[in-house]
Amino acid sequence: MAAEHCTPSPYPRRLSLQEDDLSCAVCCDIFKDPVILSCSHSFCKACLQEYCRGKAEKESPFLREEEDVRIAVLREEEEQKSQVMKEKIEEMSREISSLSDTIRALEEELRAEDISFLKVSTALSKLT
């Protein structure tokens, strides 16, 4: 539950700056038994305990959300780079195949010229 998911009251009240500073971002209410984390975020003790239930590490819900976003961005970037590398490898494979074909054709051509040269050379030696 983040602040943007708080359900507005049918009777909207205006928080003063001081009240806003004393509001839990999870339940959107004035802190009840406030807890301040090492990252300086504050939450109600009950809200934090509910959030952290089952988690090995107690961390700020906002920091966890930021981490999830960063991980998603990194995964997307990794997928894009992987696709680019795959395309480059495929292109290089096609180029290598093309070069191999060219080399084979040149080798065959040279063998054919060698045979012709040998025939001419043998014929000339018989004449002399």
Automatic annotation (TrEMBL):
Could you tell me which PANTHER family the record lists for this protein? E3 UBIQUITIN-PROTEIN LIGASE TRIM
From which source organism is this entry?
Oncorhynchus tshawytscha
Q: Per its record, how is this protein called by name?
A: RING-type domain-containing protein
* A GO molecular-function annotation: zinc ion binding
- Sorted alphabetically, which SUPFAM superfamilies does this protein's record hold? RING/U-box (SSF57850)
The answer to whether the entry has keyword Nuclease is no
| Positions of the RING-type domain | 24-64
Q: Which family does it belong to?
A: Belongs to the TRIM/RBCC family.
Q: Does the keyword Metal-binding apply?
A: yes
> Which UniProt keyword terms apply here?
Coiled coil, Metal-binding, Zinc, Zinc-finger
Annotated coiled-coil positions are: 75-109
Q: What is the lineage of its organism?
A: Eukaryota, Metazoa, Chordata, Craniata, Vertebrata
What's the domain of life for this entry? Eukaryota
InterPro entries reported in the protein's UniProt record: TRIM/RBCC, Znf_C3HC4_RING-type, Znf_RING, Znf_RING/FYVE/PHD, Znf_RING_CS
